[in-house]
Amino acid sequence: AGCPAVWLQQIEVGKKTVSGKRERWFKTMQEVVQKIGGILWGNLFMYTIMAIGLYITVRSGFFSFTKFGHIFKNTLGTLKSSKEGSEHQKGTISSFEALCVAVGGCVGVANISGVAAAIAVGGPGALFWLWVWAFFGMTLKCAEAYRSKNEKGEFFGGPSYYIQKGIAKVRGWKIGNVLAWLYGIAFCSQFILGSQPFAVSESLQTSFGIPQMATVICYSVILFFVVFKGVSRLAKIFARAVPFRCAAYVFMGVIIILLNIREVPGAFALIFKSAFTGTAAVGGFAGASVKIAMQKGLSRSVNSNEAGQGSSPMIHSSADAVHPIRQGLWGSMEVFVDTMVVCTVTALSILVTGVWDSGLTSVTLATAAFESTYGRLGVVFIGLMMFLFAITSTGGWFTYYISLINHGFEKNPKVRDAILGVFKCIFPLMPTLFVGMLVYTGFGANMMWDIMDVVCVLPVYVNIICVLLLSGDYFKLLKDYKARYMGIGSIEPNFKYFYDTEPNEAAKQHDAKLLKH
């Protein structure tokens, strides 16, 4: 009679042994990923990208800062005063649609759960370093705009194009071809991840008890619908969805800040103090050094606004713009909206409500901030915003992968089209596979962001160096733009500001007027 009891006891001991081994293995894996991330985001890299960002910003005459009024007037300001933001040739997309896809791609769950995770690990000081990179990023995004045209008359661009053509073809450095492929491979390695749907499924499970896998399967189904619409149709969908969800989120966040307006000065003081002295352990917060604050702030900034990563220029380059710099202005505005507006609203909401040191992390921390003001409505709102942010962000990134595939197989259209067909089927399935791995192994949100830190930095290594090598071309284009559109300096009549495509009709008419006078 005692045998079954002994057997059951032995089985339980066996289960605990297996469970203990599995937990140790998971912990070891997470430590390895964190160590790799720590090396990739080490002091040398952080100081290097800061130095490059500072150099380009200073050489441009702090263009994105001193000429912010011009940037706003000729981006968001054009939507009321003229049709420039919406004009485009048939088969292409407009500058405004490019902005919406780009903002849809970068304003994702990183702006909510990513910022919250940065504060939870790096402390309030992480926000300062997030702002610093955004300041440099506004100029970098402007410098990354470049376009090329395929045999169908469609515009494509981004780092793989300007690396190959600017470094390999124009300068004759064969290493440019290798760098272009390295960038493409490094960037495409991110498509296997599912940070957006994981954060959404985590949010919905926390708020409503919906199983994560049920959410992510529905997410994949919706993605199938989105990606099969094509880039131009996707742009039209985003032109309606992106402004609404950004405005709704910022509005609700600003109300939280206004209701806690007395806490705002203290929050800013904490941000600046923690950025240079670190944050001591308090409440459920374990404490953070200046290095950790800087590392988390920079990594979340790159992951959020993507400046230096070279992602959104792939869609900005698809726009039918009058001048490369004019489209680059939309890139600068994108960084401003993403980081200085949306990310700041998230961070201040968390700080002024006093939940930042609660020990919560990721989306649960952001949810706690909104719940403290709106109650259950805040929980529902964050769940809805997470879903909208995620689906538009994932859809935006789909356009980036399409751009890279077009470049990688531009000399073999049949192979390219076949790969595109297969990719459209595989892409929506990856979130389910990635989230399934995280859910069933028990790695969780922190592991997801650790993996993101590693993967998102790889293309930055290649792109940021190439932007520096090609910065001379950017400064020439900026000088030409100032002369043509701002009346600063003299125009060189024979200066070719598009490398291998012709200016659109609006640009030709403008040039004809200038040359006439």
Profile the largest sheet.
2 strands, antiparallel
Q: What is the helix content?
A: over 70%
Strand runs, count: 2
Rounded mean pLDDT is 81
End-to-end distance: 106 Å
- N-to-C SSE series? HHHHHHHHEEHHHHHHHHHHHHHHHH
Structural class: mainly alpha
Which radius of gyration do the C-alpha atoms yield? 24 Å
- Identify low-pLDDT runs: 82-86
Query: Outline, from the CA principal axes?
Result: globular
Strand content: under 5%
Main β-sheet, spatial strand arrangement: 1-2
Question: Count of DSSP helices?
Answer: 24
Q: Care to describe what's here?
A:
The structure is a single chain. This protein is 74% helix and 1% strand. The longest helix has 39 residues, at 2-40. α6 (95-106) crosses α19 (376-408), α11 packs antiparallel against α22 (444-469) and α12 (212-227) packs antiparallel against α21 (430-441). It has a two-stranded antiparallel sheet with strand order 1-2. With 517 residues, it is mainly α. It is globular and about 95 Å long. It has helices at residues 2-40, 43-59, 63-66, 68-73, 78-81, 95-106, 113-122, 125-143, 159-170, 175-188, 195-208, 212-227, 231-259, 264-277, 290-305, 313-316, 324-352, 362-374, 376-408, 413-426, 430-441, 444-469, 471-485, 505-516; strands spanning 147-149, 155-157. The chain contains 24 helices and 2 strands.
